[in-house]
Design brief:
single chain; 5-stranded antiparallel sheet; 7 helices; 13 strands; elongated; disordered C terminus; PLipase_C_Pinositol-sp_Y
Length: 356
């Protein structure tokens, strides 16, 4: 008995000395290392998925090139099964010397919890990332929709989307104001409206360009219709482009929102630059109808400022001949409302540019 006690004591002392030696070599505090008990990094083993050998504590990291082998029509459902139990972290490949980003949507659709991007790059993937995480009070965490825990759901097959209402968006772009300039010339803007989501939902449409007017351009009333099957991971994105003398498109501004945060009516859409920073006074005036398959309890935000109930502030007819009979007070109100602070429903914060 004494020998066993002595042996255990010697083993414990040896492990402690080994830990201290590792601390000196790697400069890691042993007390801090002992706190890391919730996850352990392990190499990804596809054969463990769905078996008893799969452990919820195991977390694997994937460069985007490796992740792309799983986030596709062939293996996407199996990778989603892996992410129901374990954590995955995906990061840009090292060959992206320009710090560009990959599309995070396929990774989100397959349940990856940690999708790392190059935050220093102001591009579409980063703008979608910021739009997604403005939900849940901008806490940095967003709960995955219940459908992702359904064994029959395939993120690349629209026929397996159940329990999520199908959404039809009907959008009219009526006007804009105080658009930034690309250079010294006069802006000839056009608006691109895009739904970013699963492959079967992604589509974009454009308005005509407004000739030589970046201050308060207007567009004839024209309805753009979008049908969205999987609205849980879909975004509505407005992009303002300038058409130059060579007929090339130059980026001016953008606004990106999760589909299920939208509301109906006349809306003033605050515009942002490529870094998702507010552009002072710049905004779009749109009218939006949303036809939902069925009501569903979920987080509903108001990303745009409502202007439908605005009182008539003036009797002017700015752009009314092009806006097809829209009340002049609504358009006039749009010229003032986007720069006003608003209260963020449900969060009690001052909205940044009227986003919430």
């Amino acid at each position: 008995m004494d020998n066993k006690i002595r042996e255990v004591a010697m083993t414990s002392e040896a492990k402690l000395e080994e830990g201290k030696l590792m601390e000196r070599k790697k400069k890691i505090a042993l007390e801090l290392s002992d706190l890391v008990i919730y996850c352990r990094p392990v190499p990804f083993d596809e054969e463990k998925i769905g078996t008893e050998r799969a452990c919820f504590r195991d977390m694997s990291s994937f460069p985007e090139t490796k992740a792309e082998k799983y986030v596709n029509k062939i293996k996407g459902k199996k990778f989603l099964q892996y992410n129901r139990l374990q954590l995955s972290r995906i990061y840009p490949r090292g060959q992206r010397l320009d710090s560009s980003n990959y599309d995070p949507l396929p990774m989100w659709l397959c349940g990856s919890q940690l999708v790392a991007l190059n935050f220093q790059t102001p591009d579409k993937p980063m703008q979608m990332n910021q739009a997604l995480f403005m939900l849940n009070g901008r806490s940095g965490y967003v709960l995955q929709p219940p459908i992702m825990r359904d064994d029959t759901f395939d993120p690349f097959d629209r026929n397996t989307v159940r329990g999520i209402e199908e959404v039809t968006l009907v959008i009219e772009v009526l006007g804009s104001r105080h658009l930034p300039k690309h250079g010294r010339g006069i802006v000839c803007p056009l608006i691109e409206i895009e739904v970013c989501g699963a492959e079967y939902d992604s589509v974009k449409q454009k308005t005509d360009s407004a000739a030589d007017n970046g201050l308060n351009p207007t567009w004839p009333r024209k309805a753009f219709q979008f049908s969205v099957c999987n609205s849980a991971f879909a975004f509505l994105r407005f992009v303002v482009y300038e058409i130059d003398m060579f007929n090339d498109q130059n980026f001016l501004a953008q606004a990106t929102f999760p589909i299920h945060s939208l509301k109906t009516g006349y809306r003033s859409v605050p515009l942002k630059n490529s870094y998702n920073e507010d552009l002072e006074l710049a905004a779009l005036l749109v009218h939006m109808d949303i036809i939902r398959g069925r009501n569903e309890n979920g987080e509903i935000l108001g990303p745009f400022l409502a202007v439908a109930s605005a009182p008539t502030l003036a009797s002017g007819h700015v752009g009314q001949e092009r806006l097809g009979g829209i009340e002049p007070g609504v358009f006039k109100f749009h010229q003032h409302v986007a720069s006003a602070p608003v209260t963020c429903p449900g969060h009690g914060l001052q909205g940044e540019g009227g986003l919430l």
